[in-house]
Amino acid sequence: MIKPCNYLLSGPFPIQRKDGSWEVMEGCGAQHSQHHTPCKGGIWYSTDVSVGEVKALASLMTYKCAVVDVSFGGAKAGEREMSWIVDTYISTIGHYDINAHACVTGKLIGQGGIHGWISVTGGGVFHGIENFINEASYMSILGMTPGFGDKTFVVQSFEGLERKFGKHVRTIPIVPKAEFQDRILGALEKDIVHSGLAYTMEHSARRIMHTAVKYNLGLDLRTAADVNTIEKVFKVYSEAGVTFM
């Protein structure tokens, strides 16, 4: 029930080349699950993408959202393209919609995007590692001491996520200062995003640790995360009565 992709839409759309000529191309969109709506995903312009790949990306988004308790189903661009979608929606069927700018995420700041969102992927990796690296029981299995001290991190490349992760490791204290945690009034949007990210990753990490212990998975944290995801999605299906259809 959870595995199949629920909806797939395909159709032609026109694009204008740099030389001014027009070309009609085929595109497709997938929604893996509507157990929580709206569905979250992205847009990918590529001549190499296949229908199967789009469906797989949509399902991965469902699992990624579920593992950190983000209440979206999965669906499957760049800032510029997302801003174009907002502009088109507002100028057509969305001009009476007060929340028109919220029709997509990942927009440019000037088009209603959220300050701080660019660094959340690397920041999420940092906060996820932070929770495990400070857990003595996990570090003892690896023969290491808790904390970032005397640890070396190796990244495969140095693109967006890796740069943001490196920035967090170098500059963010492992334990946020009390005044930062207590600061609500007058907080910048970026501060709220980063504070919420730290809480979300800590909550998710603790649940993964609990599941790993519950099912005796040891250091197989990926399986523990998969178990959490399946249990959460199935719970929503069950509460909605979908499992009895």
Automatic annotation (TrEMBL):
Pfam families: ELFV_dehydrog_N. Residues 13-78 form the Glutamate/phenylalanine/leucine/valine/L-tryptophan dehydrogenase dimerisation domain. InterPro entries: Aminoacid_DH-like_N_sf, Glu/Leu/Phe/Val/Trp_DH_dimer, NAD(P)-bd_dom_sf. One of its GO terms (biological process) is L-glutamate catabolic process. GO terms for cellular component: mitochondrion. Keywords: Oxidoreductase. One of its GO terms (molecular function) is glutamate dehydrogenase (NAD+) activity. Belongs to the Glu/Leu/Phe/Val dehydrogenases family. This is Glutamate dehydrogenase 1, mitochondrial. It comes from Heterocephalus glaber.
